[in-house]
Amino acid sequence: PNRLGLTMLIAEKERDKYQNMWGFPAYLDHSPGAGYVDMFMAIAKPKLGASVIDIGAGSGAASIKLKANGLSVRAFDLTNEAWAHPSIPLQNGTVWRDLHGIAEYGYCCDMMEHIPTEFVGLTIREILGHCGRAFFSVSFVPDQFGALIGQQLHLTVRPFVWWRDIFREM
């Protein structure tokens, strides 16, 4: 297949993987991104009502905390299997291809390591192109949950210096 066709096949494979993954209650309860909201608020100091996209929102735990801090939140995730927050709009798709709209802030925690390595640079550029400022938190270790479905969830497990250099290039 051509490059676009290959991109779509990869996106479909990833979507199927997470549709399966969200069927496990332990994965639903796991939200590293929610744990970084206080740090984001302290560093970014967004004004009340500032717009933020929770990128890789998952089940929405971080989105709820961001909204509770007075921010105007919309969420973005590959699937909507775990989403149960009708008061927060959710857009589905792949970040490197389907992210739309503009926000003052991008909030992206525990998501970049889930991106196939060949799409990491494009994903960062897309996020920075749609958000005035962006907050990232990246895991440098293999995931533990993928074993439940016999697959790796963290596709880009690299050391800090690798990630630092990728972000510097952007």
Task: Give the arrangement of secondary structure elements.
Blueprint: H1 3-21, H2 25-29, H3 37-44, E1 51-55, H4 61-68, E2 72-77, E3 90-92, H5 95-98, E4 103-109, H6 120-130, E5 131-137, H7 160-169
Please explain how this structure is put together:
It contains 7 helices and 5 strands; from the N terminus they run H-H-H-E-H-E-E-H-E-H-E-H. The chain is α/β, with parallel strands linked by helices. Helix 4 (61-68) links the parallel strand 1 and strand 2. The two termini are 29 Å apart. The model has no long low-confidence stretch (mean pLDDT 94).
Short description:
This protein has helices at residues 3-21, 25-29, 37-44, 61-68, 95-98, 120-130, 160-169, and strands spanning 51-55, 72-77, 90-92, 103-109, 131-137. The chain has 170 residues and is of the alpha/beta class. The protein has a 5-stranded parallel β-sheet.
Order of helices and strands: HHHEHEEHEHEH
Largest sheet: 5 strands, parallel
Question: How much of the residues is beta strand, in percent?
Answer: 15-25%
**Measured on Cα atoms, how large is the radius of gyration?**
15 Å
Please state how the strands of the largest beta sheet are arranged side by side.
3-2-1-4-5
Number of β-strand runs: 5
Mean pLDDT, all residues: 94
Whole-Å distance between the termini? 29 Å
Structural class: alpha/beta
Q: Which descriptor suits the 3D outline?
A: globular
Count up the helices: 7
State the share of residues found in helices, binned by percent. 25-40%
- Could you list the spans in which at least 5 consecutive residues all have pLDDT below 50? none
